[in-house]
Design a protein that fits this description.
2 copies of one chain form a homodimer. In chain A, 34% of the residues lie in helices and 21% in strands. Chain A has 10 helices and 10 strands. The termini of chain A are far apart. Chain A folds into 2 domains: 110 residues, 3-Layer(aba) Sandwich (Cobalt-precorrin-4 Transmethylase, domain 1); 136 residues, Tetrapyrrole methylase, C-terminal domain (Methyltransferase, Cobalt-precorrin-4 Transmethylase, Domain 2), CATH 3.30.950.10.
Chain lengths: 254, 254
């Protein structure tokens, strides 16, 4: 019986993988990977059979139960099985369903943490998600609910936190903006919608909470996160740039 | 004029560094590092002068303003200057003060994100911080306030979030437990205090919110995080272990 490694591939750029993840990929015999994992990251698994089971493959995503079963079966035939997930496996990665299946089948597993999109995005914007004397909590949240899920009061968690990072929110931009404003969040709360963080095709769309629906309309098809909070105000306000290119140049340099 | 890289060293284990961080350390001419950064991580910076400016050095920590000035001065004399911080620079890393100083002095800088303690701890516990149909938000929070800081309602953010990870909280365990219970959080909310996550000397102290003061008394001097929320219930309840070693063995394997 082998070991299944649930490995975080990081936010996108292949060099934001951890050394541990790279070492495990080199030894992997099978890799089940999300569709968005970078090709250069997959190349590290030179010996492995690579199987896309990914969400967002454009066509369909493999049912979670079927992924769980394949992981268990693979651990019966191989020493080193990798489940490679975008970002960090413990943040919106549906890792728990796979963990439960592996525990239930008596398979040894190990989780390798990764850089999550929120901090990679903050790094690119040159802004800290927390700030001494200013922001002492940051929430990572998704407004998406699963079928049959209990009420998800995502908005309450955003309202209570100094800084919020919204994952998988671009498609719900109208709802997010309207609901937060209705419940008392300032319309001019600084916000940035960032698409394809850490990749060359990255786009930064800065604005305010009231602008979010318009920003989402301008975004493309890449994965997005929305950063929201006063920590962004200084960096956005200082910019007198009018184009995205200029804003990016400003954000990157002093 | 050189570039200053604000680099996340990850949660503790040297192989939880990113490939990008390792590559920058190899080119570094000067490294200003926190006291808790692993010696093997520092060894990667073979060419660099290494200067501890760290918090928690046991004796004193260098004043933040002095660190800011040294970074600016170093960038005037060197091509590649690294400020190496535990975890991720944008999460409780006081990066913003250094960013502001660098921007003010016209120094080019870049932030390299890292694995933060929260997800490394979740990985070791074998538990996801979010869980489809169950936990759709996770807050990272510290109850510590700086001198002159506005009121920090850390408790409100914990109460509103499905899962909470409390950084730098062990010394305030009595306050955390009492305040959350007073404001309606269940006494039996599952909790784990984890010390020295990702290192060989790691300790996991599982319990409930009511137990937190006792768990904190049993913890040592290493850095701690407290995980709190229903996502932990299954994994802790399934354990019939009575010693920490047994709990760890249970958490690690099925």
């Amino acid at each position: 019986m082998g070991t299944v490694y649930l490995v975080g591939a990081g936010p996108g750029a292949p060099d934001l993988l951890t050394l541990r993840a790279a070492e495990i990929l080199k030894r992997a015999e099978v890799v089940f990977h999300d569709a968005l994992v970078h090709p250069q990251t997959l190349e590290l698994a030179a010996l492995a059979e690579k199987i896309a089971v990914g969400k967002r493959s454009g066509r369909h995503s493999t049912a979670q139960k079927f992924i769980n079963k394949r992981l268990v079966d693979a651990a019966r035939d191989h020493e080193v099985v990798v489940r490679l997930k975008g970002g960090d496996p413990t943040i919106f990665g549906r890792a728990q369903e796979e963990i439960d299946a592996l525990r239930g089948a008596g398979i040894t597993f190990e989780i390798v943490p990764g850089v999550t999109a929120a901090t990679a995005t903050a790094a690119e914007l040159g802004v800290s998600l927390t700030r001494r004397g200013f922001a002492r909590h940051v929430v990572f949240v998704t407004p998406r609910t699963a079928a049959g899920e209990r009420e998800n009061d995502w908005a309450a968690s955003v309202l209570a936190a100094d800084t919020a990072v919204i994952y998988m929110g671009a498609g719900l931009a109208e709802t997010i903006s309207a609901e937060l404003i209705r419940r008392g969040k300032r319309r001019d709360t600084p916000l940035a919608l960032v698409e394809s963080a850490s990749l060359p095709e990255r786009r930064v769309l800065p604005g305010t909470l009231a602008d979010l629906p318009e920003l989402a309309r301008r975004a493309g098809l890449g994965p997005t996160v929305v950063l929201l909070g006063e920590v962004l105000r200084a960096v956005l306000a200082e910019s007198t740039a009018t184009s995205i290119k200029e804003i990016e140049a400003f954000l990157k340099h002093a």
